[in-house]
């Protein structure tokens, strides 16, 4: 009986590479969830976007609406002192939300309270559902 161990020959090196790649700081930041987190909902006439950005001043947030996309940009300033552990992201951020419906850009409103940014985007008239009546013949 012959047992082939060739598939295990490189196993220690492969495990080392796996753990090195998994815990490299750049890989950890790439695996992070998108920031800032958003909740998106809609009703018949509006789209609602809620984004959590605690600790960011209103002056440090920029909202742009163009080509069917909502872009939320900002800068969360670094805290003072040296850190032993830092889990809250700091620095520049950008989140793009694709809107797959015609909108009315003139009616968009945004407000921030308690670190939650609320953006209300009205849908365009052509995006509203229309009831079609059926004629009897």
Polypeptide structure, described:
This protein is an alpha+beta fold. It has a domain at 36-126: Immunoglobulin-like (Sandwich). It is 15% helix and 34% strand. It is built from 2 helices and 7 strands; from the N terminus they run ααβββββββ. It has helices at 11-23, 25-31, and strands at 38-42, 46-52, 61-66, 69-76, 91-98, 109-113, 116-122. The strands form 2 sheets. A 4-stranded antiparallel beta sheet has the order 1-2-7-6, with no helix packed on it. Strand 1 and strand 2 (46-52) form a beta hairpin. The longest helix is centred in the first third of the chain and has 13 residues, at 11-23. The relative contact order is 0.18. The model is unreliable at 27-31 (pLDDT under 50).
Enumerate how many helices there are, as a single number. Answer: 2
Shape: flat
The span between the termini is 85 Å
Biggest β-sheet, characterized? 4 strands, antiparallel
| Residue windows where pLDDT falls under 50 for at least 5 positions | 27-31
| Total number of strands | 7
CATH architecture of the domain at 36-126: Sandwich
What's the level 1 CATH class of the domain at 36-126? Answer: Mainly Beta
Mean pLDDT: 83
Structural class: alpha+beta
Name the beta content range.
25-35%
The residue fraction in helices comes out at 10-25%
- Computed CA radius of gyration, to the nearest angstrom: 24 Å
Could you tell me the CATH topology label of the domain at 36-126: Immunoglobulin-like
Strand order of the largest sheet: 1-2-7-6
Question: What is the ordering of alpha helices and beta strands?
Answer: HHEEEEEEE
């Amino acid at each position: 009986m012959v047992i082939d161990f060739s598939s295990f020959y490189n196993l220690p090196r492969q495990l080392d590479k796996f753990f090195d790649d998994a815990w490299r700081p750049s890989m950890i930041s790439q695996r992070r969830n998108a920031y800032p987190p958003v909740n998106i909902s809609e009703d018949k006439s509006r789209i609602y976007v809620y984004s959590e950005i605690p600790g960011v001043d209103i002056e440090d947030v920029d909202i742009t609406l163009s080509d069917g996309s909502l872009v939320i940009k900002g800068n969360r300033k670094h805290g003072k002192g040296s850190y032993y552990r830092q889990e809250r992201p700091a620095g520049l951020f950008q989140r793009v939300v694709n809107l797959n419906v015609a909108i009315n850009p003139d009616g968009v409103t945004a407000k921030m309270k308690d670190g939650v940014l609320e953006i209300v985007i009205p849908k365009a008239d052509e995006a509203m559902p229309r009831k079609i009546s059926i004629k009897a013949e």
